[in-house]
Design brief:
Elements (H helix, E strand, L loop, with lengths): L2 H14 L3 H10 L13 H8 L3 H13 L3 E9 L2 E8 L1 H10 L6
Antiparallel strand pairs: 1-2
């Protein structure tokens, strides 16, 4: 990976953690232990867990996906719509664990 690619990742991560709700979403999506893989979560799951409006959570998950912090794992049909499930990208998980000194919860 080049220095420019590293700077781009740092820039994306800084923008991702610039909003309190995105930080909370990242914390929920982050595995408890380095190398483990948490269950993917949908904006609906996250909204319920974080007690936040679904539309707001959906927007912030979309931002995390656009910043390449989170990625789509699967789509599941639900009552005529599609529920999307996301995980953090491994590099974002590693950055978060380092940034927060592995003390997420």
């Amino acid at each position: 990976m080049t220095a420019d690619e590293n700077l781009l990742k740092v820039s994306r991560f800084a923008k991702a953690v610039s909003h309190p709700l995105r930080i909370r979403i990242i914390q929920v999506l982050c595995p408890d232990e380095p190398g483990s893989m948490p269950f993917p979560m949908s904006p609906k799951n996250l909204a319920e867990l974080l007690d936040a409006p679904l539309s707001t959570v959906s927007y912030h998950v979309k931002v995390l996906k656009e910043l390449e912090i989170a990625y789509l794992v699967k789509k599941v049909p639900r009552r005529g719509a599609m529920e999307h499930f996301y995980r953090l990208k491994p590099w974002a998980t590693a950055a978060l664990l380092v940034l927060m000194d592995q003390d997420l919860r």
